[in-house]
Amino acid sequence: MQALTSLTLSHFRSHLRAEMHLDGRPVALFGANGAGKTNILEAVSLFSPGRGIRRASAAEMTRRPEGLGWKLKGVLQTSAQPYEIETWSDEGAARQVRIDGKPANQIALGQICRVVWLVPVMDRLWVEAAEGRRRFLDRIALSFDPAHAEASLTYEKSMRERNKLLKEQVRDPVWYRVLEAQMAASGHRIHMARTHAIEKLLDAQRKAETAFPVAELQLLQSEGEMPQSEAEFVDALAENRSRDLSVGRTLIGPHRSDLLGHYAAKGVAAKDCSTGEQKALLVSLILANARALMQETGAPPLVLLDEVAAHLDANRRQALYDEICALGAQAWMTGTGSELFAELKDRAQMLEVSEDAGISKLSDG
Fold first, then answer.
1. Nearest CA to 74 among 107, 109, 108, 50?
2. What is the DSSP string of 63-82?
3. Where is mean pLDDT largest: 64-68, 306-310, 335-339?
4. Distances from the Cα of 261 to the Cαs of 125, 127, 134, 139, in angstroms?
5. Helix, strand, coil proportions of the chain in percent (round to 5)?
6. HEC sequence for 230-276
7. Confidence band of 66 (pLDDT split at 50, 70, 90)
8. What pLDDT is attached to residue 91?
9. What is the pLDDT of residue 358?
10. What DSSP line would sit under 175-219, residue for residue?
11. Rounded to whole angstroms, how far apart are CA atoms 60 and 28?
12. Chain segment 161-203, per-residue pLDDT in tens
């Protein structure tokens, strides 16, 4: 089991204050546009490592015009024990975390709370630039390995410093060796985490009976093959240095990867599928991610689905809700009207979100 049993938002986005008491069932949030439904999902997403569903900075999350900072507090019930989790930012400072009253880092947070999500901005995943697909895959890899974020930060920092040397046309190899060793170590770890994440998704899809299409996935490099070991990566960076100098940036590594998807039953590239098929493939991958985490950890993750019901017909909505409930996941879903969740009946906690004088109101729907 993994579910939030309480959640409090203070000065977070549009919410001056909001309190929720939850019973572990899926949560369906409905209300008018602008009521703050997605802001609640963003708050839940911050119970995992990273910058949440909007990839926002801590300063961007504070309620305006006050700008006093914000705080989230919740009780996470797991099969092992309950955890009291707090995360906050004081007036634009970096986000902080406390677990059971003790300071903690985000890796520790990721070890006790796994969260996966699907939000409308991801609908263009298959037709946008490769960077978006890398972020999508990295989020999945992070759900399996909370330390993946640290490896990504180390790689990005080392690559920025190496790129600075390249732009300044520094040719002395001594300046590059330490940076390239750091890039090779973290870059190889990133590549392996992504590869393993794809394997787990494919395995979870193969083993499931689902109404959603199976997506074939492939990780490709824009420049040849990714080096298969840390040592090979070090050598490849050194060998490619002269070519990198000519363009002023690093041309090989996991930052040049791309995730390709295919609709397996039709043999059609995801980018060439209809809008509805692309959405169904995304839902399929998020459900596969949740099933794989269930297999690996023994508990389903929290599943965040923003406005997903509006883009599915009644049959697909029924199939989605049935899979969520069969998985035992506390899914957090948003929509403008309660009718979008009719197929859930009493299997979910229905909450109407509204606002009165700056105070968020959540009432049973």
1. 109
2. -TTT---EEEEEEEEESS-E
3. 335-339
4. 10, 11, 12, 16
5. 45, 25, 30
6. HHHHHHHHHHCHHHHHHHCCCCCCHHHEEEEEEECCCCEEHHHCCHH
7. confident
8. 84
9. 65
10. HHHHHHHHHHHHHHHHHHHHHHHHHHHHHHHHH---SSPPEEEEE
11. 26
12. 999 999 999 999 999 999 999 999 999 999 999 999 999 999 9
Q: What is the band of 335 on the pLDDT scale with cuts at 50, 70, 90? A: very high
Burial of 232 (0-12, 13-18, 19+ CB in 10 A): middle
Interior angle at CA 194, CA 189 and CA 112, nearest 5:
85
Domains of the chain, CATH where assigned: 1-114+301-365 (3.40.50.300), 124-298 (1.20.1050.90)
Q: Is the bond into 103 cis (omega within 30 degrees of 0)?
A: no
63 and 16 Cβ atoms separated by less than 8 Å? yes
Report CA torsion sign: 47, 49, 51, 57.
Answer: positive
pLDDT, position 15: 93
